[in-house]
Amino acid sequence: MNVTAFRVCKTAALKRKKIPYIMQWLLIFLICFSARSALADPNEDEAKNNITIFTRILDRLLDGYDNRLRPGLGDSTTEVFTNIYVTSFGPVSDTDMEYTIDVFFRQKWKDERLKFKGPMNILRLNNLMASKIWTPDTFFHNGKKSIAHNMTMPNKLLRIQDDGTLLYTMRLTVQAECPMHLEDFPMDAHSCPLKFGSYAYTTAEVTYKWTLNASDSVEVAPDGSRLNQYDLLGQTIGQETAKSSTGEYTVMTAHFHLKRKIGYFVIQTYLPCIMTVILSQVSFWLNRESVPARTVFGRDLVGGAACRVSAIPSTHDPRDCDKPEEQRHGVTTVLTMTTLSISARNSLPKVAYATAMDWFIAVCYAFVFSALIEFATVNYFTKRGWAWDGKSIVNDKRSASSL
């Protein structure tokens, strides 16, 4: 009995010793947990809460949303506000009558189905959300080829405001037609249009408007011009209505005004033509009986063989050396003008009318050709004059000998 009581007392004593030990560990655990909670970043918790709220808002917006139907279907017309920021303009091809432009194309409209309430006013999203909602079916009327950039991801931006207003931006490279009238080439100026609008929706369903005023709706970056032969003078905007068998459609237009730089053509065409005309006329300012001078001039200009007067017999008339060199001179200038005319046309489309440069080259060609005709005429009458003089001298000698 005493042994049993002793064991019970001993067990009770051990339990009394273990209880403070467990309480100590429990107290340490509570202190560490409280310290961790106190040191935790409040922004991290807020970020987690925002992510959760974002997800709930997007899920609620897309719940029952049909992206096949435009906003205000059967009730009102959808207004799409647009503006363009040009990052790169050019090059311009005269031969194909087209130009290339790289833009940030922005569209803004309101969709009542996408209203939301939350701690934020704007949802900033990417292209993944854009594929799940209705977007305007905008296309470029005069575009030959359009590219939507997808490296490294589709270059698209979507922002949804709490009142249902959406901003949709994409980066595009458009190769568009630019009708040109080249009658004044190379002193010509052109207006290259960029036309866009809805492909399927008529004006009764979707209308387009410019977001800003005329000077700001289409903006070109300060370093955005990539033109070697043109100066970009400015741009204007407008709005048209296109009628077809399927209805009337809104067409937005932006015109880029270009003025050609004439410096290249002055160096490559105008100066060579002027110098060729001058050279074709210089020989007629020399004395027609100064054979060595006229011969050297013709030889140096054309690069023909020299007419060596010292190698000609004394019985031969030295004026005979003049003919080949002058003929080569005139023929070469005519060929030079022909070459310049062909090279000037290589950079232009094959239009059926004459340009200002064509008329200039034609006048130069007429001067050069007239110089060749003038030489032939002068040479003909000069030779006839020499023959008559020689015949009269021979007759005089015969008359004197007979006497």
TrEMBL record:
InterPro entries: GABAA/Glycine_rcpt, GABAAa_rcpt, Neur_chan_lig-bd, Neur_chan_lig-bd_sf, Neur_channel, Neuro-gated_channel_TM_sf, Neuro_actylchol_rec, Neurotrans-gated_channel_TM. Residues 55-262 form the Neurotransmitter-gated ion-channel ligand-binding domain. Residues 1-40 form the signal peptide. It is found in: Postsynaptic cell membrane. Pfam families: Neur_chan_LBD (PF02931), Neur_chan_memb (PF02932). The chain crosses the membrane at residues 359-381. Its main location: membrane. The keyword Signal applies. One of its GO terms (molecular function) is chloride channel activity. It is a multi-pass membrane protein. Residues 269-298, 330-384 form the Neurotransmitter-gated ion-channel transmembrane domain. Keywords: Cell membrane, Chloride, Chloride channel, Disulfide bond, Glycoprotein, Ion channel, Ion transport, Ligand-gated ion channel, Membrane, Postsynaptic cell membrane, Receptor, Signal, Synapse, Transmembrane, Transmembrane helix, Transport. One of its GO terms (cellular component) is postsynaptic membrane. The keyword RNA-binding does not apply. PANTHER family: NEUROTRANSMITTER GATED ION CHANNEL. Belongs to the ligand-gated ion channel (TC 1.A.9) family. This is Gamma-aminobutyric acid receptor subunit alpha-2 isoform X4. It comes from Pantherophis guttatus. The lineage of its organism: Eukaryota, Metazoa, Chordata, Craniata, Vertebrata.
